[in-house]
Specification:
- Helix content is 29%, strand content 30%.
- The chain contains 17 helices and 35 strands.
- Strands 25-24-23-22-28-27-26 form a seven-stranded antiparallel beta sheet, with helices on one face. Strands 2, 3, 4, 6 and 7 form a five-stranded antiparallel beta sheet that branches. Strands 5-1-9-8 form a four-stranded antiparallel beta sheet, with no helix packed on it.
Length: 711
């Protein structure tokens, strides 16, 4: 990072000089004969070596920065590269001591290929020295790519594999190449094998790649998708700092970036929920508006698409502003709801075109093939974005915030204990914790601890410590019916009403609890957090009730193609791990696990496996288990495509609905991990929140600070 900054700031003119200066300053007794090398060339040498940048991938990225500065390579561009195969020569070491090897490929930290999942065993690397060993891959890679190689003690055990070496690179810097070679000293971890115990000195990894759109179906689809934008869209040109999409605007256009980049920013305001300022690494906005810090949560470059939420679902969007000096894009203006209006003509009408309105109501003629290409191509873009945002959410869930270092350990221990005790998703965070008095119809006044998570409320009778009682009551944010402050003399009490499922009677019951605090200020804190959870729960339920998967086009595909799985409580759905199918929960609930940790809960109307379904990949990263008696639809990719090929109109509507659902998932994950005033709805309600900086607290206006006190 320091070497890169030396280069970026102009202190050094090339990558080699920047790396050399870093090595010189880092090493007390710099030896000019060693240069940049931090490892002894002589085997068994005890001489102290220069301390420079050791990681080959780190060195590679400093040179990438040099290429950005002098060769005008766009690092933010979405540059797809088809990876056909990975090969290397069997050396003397492997001929004497064979490897059981598997490899995993990640793009932007999201897994796109795992050889063990495809082969169900590790590869045997041995035999005659000099033979070429090949691993077929055939996947599209993009952006930052990491290929990790694992060694297995046994050829069929994925749980006990050990990372042997890895390679990290970016696809934008090899455009036009047919093969990329990484020698041993350019491979992380293997570079340190100076005594050649693990591999020969001549060991190298060769990647067979192609940038041609004709080599793989999805790359050809993306290429045609971009040409469609240039043909049917209109040009957009902006200068740096221009807001292409403003927060709360009703811009229903879809943009494809042709040159330059935009950045997505979260603009928090003081009158918005305290959670709106709570980002993965802590508070993003100080109390003073003059020093308002606007965090950038995403950058989109050439070949990327943005504006999907408003285009597909007429939803809200964060602000997208131009990041580069020059910016050019193509935009499509379409009222996609008008597509379904053609359904009145019947599913099989004799027409090769549809009349589709734009946002002004003007009808334009689109062919079925154009609309299918638009939505299939868009689904591939959304799959990349959805995989990234889900992966970032999982990664950030393990990050600790910097704002509350004094009570950090206790809060984290409390969170982990709650997750383990109630099998909740790892993305849950503790927002508020306080001791209080609890009263209900069936319970006398007693002391408890109220713990507010992002999606659950825990009423803990143990009150103290970083653990919660197994007898604690837990309330999902979708069950909250109302939150109110008790009026009258005792204003330090709030009323919480929620819907509870009575398993014995099989009906829902309304429960009302009185929760009292030591003072009015504490009760207001709790009131505002619970109000925020109540609004979030209602928004989530609205998303699920209006799920595009309930559209008649999707239901038609389900009726003709779906395989029905009936699961009992705690029964695993193995197909989630082993196939590239999409799974839609008809009834019940699924808990999705990742790396043996509970990650997401999928309820009725939700789905899992969308990314693999669209990309046609089997990553094997997820597993699923029924939380209760559950029925699930499985849609196999090949069966769905075969059925849709018979009906062009149904194909258009299905992919439109699938794109809408994927974008809805992206929106929900962004709201959860990057909240801000942009999460407020469009229309009069959202505009009122944004314009009025002094909302009355009786309208559930939360505070701008977060209280994690356990007092």
């Amino acid at each position: 990072m320091i070497s890169a900054f030396l280069l970026w700031s102009g202190h050094r003119r090339c990558a080699l000089d920047a790396l050399e200066l870093f090595t010189f300053r880092r090493t007390r007794d710099f030896d000019i004969e060693d240069g940049l090398e931090s490892l002894a060339e002589e085997v068994g040498s005890t001489r102290k070596q220069n301390q420079g940048v050791e990681g080959p991938s780190q060195i590679r990225y400093v040179h990438y920065l040099e290429a950005i500065l002098y060769s005008r390579i766009e690092p933010t561009a979405l540059q797809e590269m088809f990876l056909r195969e990975i090969s290397f020569s069997v050396g003397e070491v492997q001929s004497q001591k064979p490897w059981y090897l598997s490899c995993q490929i990640c793009c932007m930290r999201s897994v796109v290929f795992d050889s063990f999942v495809h082969k169900n065993s590790a590869y045997f690397v041995g035999g005659v020295a000099g033979e070429r060993f090949l691993i077929p891959v055939n996947v599209i890679t993009y952006g930052d790519v990491q290929i990790s190689f694992f060694l297995h003690n046994q050829g069929t055990n994925i749980e006990h594999r050990e990372l042997a070496f890895f390679i990290t690179f970016n696809t934008s810097f090899y455009f036009g190449s047919e093969g990329i070679t990484f020698k041993k000293n350019c491979i992380d971890m293997l570079k340190k094998d100076t005594q050649n115990k693990n591999s020969d000195s001549t060991f190298e990894v060769l990647l067979g790649v192609s940038y041609s759109s004709s080599c793989f179906g999805h790359m050809e689809t993306l290429d045609k998708f971009r040409k469609l934008f240039e043909c049917r869209g209109f040009a957009v040109s902006c200068s740096k700092g221009t807001e292409v999409i403003s927060e709360g605007s009703e811009n229903h256009k879809l943009y494809l970036i042709l040159d330059g980049a935009v950045e997505g920013v979260v603009i928090g305001q003081e009158n918005i929920a305290s959670e709106a300022h709570r980002h993965p690494f802590g508070l993003s906005s100080p109390s003073s508006k003059e020093s308002l810090y606007i965090p950038i949560v995403g950058i989109a470059g050439k070949n990327s698409v943005f504006g999907c939420s408003q285009f597909l679902n007429r939803g809200t969007s964060m602000t997208y502003r131009v990041r580069t000096e020059k910016f050019q894009a193509a935009a499509i203006d379409m009222d996609i709801d008008s597509i379904d209006k053609n359904e009145s003509k019947g599913s099989h009408f004799d027409s090769s075109k549809l009349m589709v309105a734009n946002s002004s109501g003007i009808l334009k003629s689109w062919s079925f093939s154009e609309l299918v290409l638009l939505f299939v191509g868009l689904s591939l873009h959304l799959a990349i974005k959805l995989a990234f945002i889900k992966n970032e959410g999982f990664r950030l869930s393990a990050q600790r915030e910097f704002d509350h270092c004094d009570s950090l350990d206790d809060v984290e221990l409390l969170r982990l204990n709650i997750l383990k005790q109630f099998v909740l998703p790892i993305t849950e965070k503790v927002l508020f914790s306080a001791k209080c008095f609890f009263k209900s119809d069936s319970n006398p006044n007693k002391r408890i601890r109220l713990i507010a998570l992002k999606k659950h409320i825990v009423l803990d009778p143990e009150v103290f410590g970083p653990t919660v009682s197994a007898s604690s009551e837990i309330i999902n944010f979708t069950e909250i019916h109302n939150v109110d402050l008790k009026r009258g003399i005792n204003q330090s009490t709030l009323i919480l009403s929620f819907n509870n499922q009575n398993t014995k009677k099989g009906i829902q019951e309304r429960k009302i609890y009185e929760i009292g605090f030591q003072n009015h200020e504490k009760s207001v804190h709790a009131y505002e957090f619970l109000c925020y959870m109540h609004r979030s729960g209602k928004r989530y339920m609205k998303y699920m009730q209006e799920s595009p998967l309930k559209n008649s086009a999707v239901q038609d595909v389900i009726h003709n193609c779906a395989i029905i799985h009936t699961l009992e409580t705690n029964e695993a759905l193995c197909e989630v791990t082993t196939t590239n199918s999409a799974f839609i929960v008809r009834s019940g609930s699924l808990m999705i696990f990742r790396e043996c940790q509970a990650w997401r809960e999928i309820n009725e109307g939700g789905s899992v496996g969308e990314v693999d379904f669209v990309q046609g990949t089997v990553t094997g990263q997820l597993s699923a288990k029924a939380q209760c008696d559950t029925t699930v639809y499985e849609l196999k990719s090949k069966d769905v495509l075969r059925f849709l090929a018979l009906n062009s109109f149904l194909e258009v509507r299905f992919w439109k609905c699938f794109c809408q659902y994927m974008e809805l998932q992206i929106l929900m994950h962004q709201e959860y991990h990057y909240p801000g005033s942009w999460c407020l709805p469009n229309g009069p309600e959202g505009k009122n929140w944004r314009q009025n900086s002094n909302q009355d607290r009786t309208e559930c206006q939360p505070l701008t600070q977060i209280n994690l006190s356990s007092d």
